Amino acid sequence: MHALANKTVTDQELPLDTGYLIKGFMEYRNCYSIMMHTSTTSKSKLLAK
């Protein structure tokens, strides 16, 4: 990984599984933040009652 750090890495240069891991992690993080946001808003709605 240190050799890749010096230059810009495109998707084609990455090993296939690494690209999938990064994409999967980003999607997971997006879903997680959306879920957390939804749960906090629904909690505040319940508290507002």
TrEMBL record:
- For this entry, the protein name equals Uncharacterized protein
**Organism, scientific name:** Arundo donax
